[in-house]
From TrEMBL:
Protein name: Chaperone
Domain of life: Bacteria
GO molecular function terms noted in the UniProt entry: ATP binding; ATP-dependent protein folding chaperone
Residues forming coiled coils: none
Keyword set, alphabetical order: ATP-binding, Nucleotide-binding
Length: 453
């Protein structure tokens, strides 16, 4: 059976065609969108989960390649007291809940796709990301097949124009290789990829009554992509659409970066950002940035290192407001960076509708809160929003013509701040909102049906 698969930075979704219409598949209880998160009681259990879940014909080779980490998994299971039927691996909302209950234990990753194109990864790191992706796809594919009562064998997976801000095509090839390997290990026989903004455009095009030049702006959790596409009745039935795509631009900046920016600029001051040493020198900003940058492996590793823990102890003796810096120490000691940035995300969402929001930071210190308003949100994310606007302007320039419409999609596309920033630069071009979460999945599903049937 054919499936469209949005392995997104924020959420995952799958769709199939039924009676000529796209049907999204429930992946977590009755919900069709599953958060792109994974939590394991020990990182070796992820590889063990894959070893047990992949097809028997591939198990021998995989076990030989992962021999060392699979031995570690045996010791981890014994230390954790896991029963044979317990995997110790969780995905989606369940992963978030397990992490929040035990943040100081285990391995938690949010938006793993954001890391797949990282430059400088060692072979063992690439292998581990393959296992993370495979484990997640195994879970999603199994749940979808149980719901449908049929095997899923062919898929089209969405991809950003660029997985990383740096690295170019080398980063893209690495990320595509990781996802292809993972999808095939999980049991898909045929795997194709389609740019996510193009997928969103295909869904939008289905309802067009006349030809238009459309700028599709897809603001996901980890990346922002723009595609300038000729759409409409004259184009949608063509087998080869390459000539209709006039321009693509993309960058690794998305909703997660807005959350990080808000957490750093407006929440980290309660943990000492902006403070001083007794000598009058300012506290270094890098430590606070490392804590917030949850989509950067190296910075998170630096923040959680023993060396930085010792540095924090030294700093505490010399700062003017040690009670604030102690909060950063709590975050570091208890691995709370994801929880911290999550509060910024919730504030960002709330401020889309309200002018003020109280952020709950009581997981760091009893009754600790921080009040935020729309002005503070705007100040924090202005730089990120202007980068998205620049992508749209570049796509229009590359296309050499003006769009008849701008189609916004993606989890962050509903932001009033984004719309205002685009309107300020692009004028009165009609701006339309699609299904912020489902349009990419719908387009992938329609494209999969077309190329595999």
């Amino acid at each position: 059976m054919v499936v469209g698969f949005d392995y997104g930075s924020s959420n995952c979704a799958m769709g199939v065609m039924r009676a000529g219409a796209v049907e999204l598949i429930p992946l977590e209880n009755s919900k069709c969108y599953l958060p792109s998160t994974l939590y394991a009681l020990h990182n070796s259990l992820i590889s063990e989960y894959v070893a047990k879940g992949i097809q028997e014909s591939a198990q021998s080779q995989f076990r030989a390649q992962r021999n060392g980490i699979l031995k570690s998994a045996q010791f981890a299971r014994s230390d954790l007291g896991l029963m044979p039927q317990e995997t110790g691996v969780f995905v989606g909302q369940e992963a978030i809940e397990e992490y929040i209950s035990m943040p100081e234990e285990g391995y938690f990753v949010k938006s793993p796709k954001s890391f797949f194109g990282a430059i400088g990864l060692k072979p063992e790191q690439i292998a581990f990301f393959e296992d993370i992706a495979t484990a997640m796809i195994l879970v999603l594919k199994t749940r979808a097949e149980q719901h449908l009562g049929k095997a899923l064998t062919q898929t089209v997976i969405g991809r950003p124009v660029n997985f990383q801000a740096v690295g170019g095509e080398d980063s893209n090839r690495q990320a595509i290789s990781i996802l292809t390997t993972a999808a095939k290990r999980a049991g898909f026989t045929d795997v194709e990829f389609l740019y996510e903004p193009l997928a969103a455009g295909i869904d939008f095009e289905s309802d067009l009554q006349q030809d238009q030049k459309v700028l599709v702006v897809d603001i996901g959790g980890g990346t922002s992509d723009c595609s300038f596409v000729q759409m409409g009745p004259s184009y949608r039935d063509c087998e080869d659409r390459s000539a209709h795509f006039l321009a693509h631009t993309g960058k690794r900046i998305g909703g997660n970066d807005l959350d990080i920016a808000l957490a750093f600029h407006k929440l980290m001051p309660v943990c000492g950002l902006g403070g001083q040493f007794k000598s009058g020198l300012p506290l270094p900003k890098q430590a606070f940035w490392q804590a917030c940058k949850i989509n950067d492996i190296q910075l998170q590793s630096d923040f959680y290192s023993g060396a930085f823990g010792r540095e924090l102890n030294t700093m505490l003796r010399d700062v003017c407001e040690p009670e604030k810096l102690k909060r950063l120490q709590v975050i570091q000691a208890n691995k709370m960076t994801h929880q911290f940035v999550r509060q910024a995300e919730l504030a960002k969402i709330a401020l889309s509708d309200d002018s003020a929001h109280q952020v709950d930071l009581s997981f760091i210190e009893n009754e600790l809160v921080q009040n935020l308003d729309l002005v503070q949100l705007t100040e924090s994310v202005e730089s990120s929003l202007q980068q998205v606007v620049a992508l749209a302007e570049q796509a229009i320039s590359d296309a050499g013509t003006k769009p008849d419409a701008i189609y916004l999609t993606g989890g962050s596309a509903q932001s009033p701040l984004l719309k205002s920033a685009l309107q300020a630069k692009l004028g009165d071009t009609p701006m339309l909102n699609g299904d912020n979460f489902g349009s990419v999945t719908a387009g992938l599903t329609k494209w999969a049906e077309r190329i595999y049937r």
